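Suppose you are handed a protein chain with no further information: no name, no annotation, nothing but its sequence. What can you learn? This example shows the usual starting point.
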Amino acid sequence: MFKIVVSIVFIAFLVSGTISQADDFQPRPLEPAEAELADLVKQMYAAYDKYYTQAEKIKDKQERDKYFADHDPSTKYVSLLAEFERTHHGTHAGLMAVRKLIHLGGGGGAFENPRDIGRRTILPVLPDYGQTREFPEIIRYLDGGNFDPEIEVTLRKLSKDPQISEENRLYARFMLARLSLKFRRMQQNWKSRLKELQEGQATSYPGEKESLLHWQAMARSEEKLVQLEQEALQTLETLSTTSLKMRQPALTNIDDDWHIIVFDPEQTKTKPTLKDMAAGLLFKERHLQEGQPGPDLKLKLVSGKDWSLAEQRGKAVIIQFSFKGCGPCEAMYTDLRELKAKYEDKPSILNIMADEDRKDTLDAFTSGKLPWNVYWDDYRGPIATRWSVTGFPTVYIIGPDGRIAAKQLRGQDLEAKIVELVEE
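A reasonable first move is to predict its three-dimensional structure. Written in structure tokens, the prediction is:
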């Protein structure tokens, strides 16, 4: 579980839909401070590699948990990144240090771990970067990781701060709405996970039960949840009808490891508008929840055949949003092949691919890598935007009755749900 801390952040960074590089893009040289930061981050990831390699050698769980707690590289590197930002405050290098601290804070783990504390510590400096074009890319990860009430407070301040550019204030409003709509599900997850632990399931990481109890003590009342949800939906309604042409900014790298990124104006022209993103999140909340009828979906597959969700009535349907090179997505392909072999066409499988190059999607189909229904949606395409897909893989399971039966299942949980649905 602890290995997820860095890998989740890295995966989210790659699949965010904002990172791209134009064919004719000419990166500028790294400034000395940027090169210094890139080296620091390389050292951090190298330390994490050694950390996990050593931990995997320890077979006793208690001993391994103690090793995790005593040797976490974030104890050292969060402080170094925070100090780097302080000494380079207001510069592009400083902004990149903020970005790394927020990424680390999105990794989860025990309550009040160093990564959470580092993220919280850096929140007060965000307004000083509020005029930068990269700002949305920095704050778009604030709703990830562990619950922290200070993040809601910060986003509210950013959405009203005159020091922030108008477009960045609007993006902060969007992020606040997205965060507010997560609270109910977050609290439900705390409750269900605590129940599993009380019934004897093993903890996923040291201090998990204690952490869940801390967060549950901060849970919002039903009245407050309803208030936040209504406020969020009203914000999304407003943003989805705005005349402002703001788009999700595209970023590209100027170092080989993507530790230093810069705004790419040309590629930004191809990205979704904030208006469309708000409409997608509204659509997701209103039409993509468990128990609701599956939305109307009609596609022209890369095979040339027409496919519609309505025509799958009577079958279980697995919809996976994926792209070439997405490790967790491709890890699911084996499970999907086994389900197809075991149950033939009783579960109808559809891959919606976010490859920038249609050829990559076509090759995956013609090579037999994806021997089922495959649709190319382009990079941050219309369906991913409409369904508010923010990470990959995103998985929906539609029941034979046409209603959404589950989301985000994998492995044994996915198979168990398909068995339940095909045997109905």
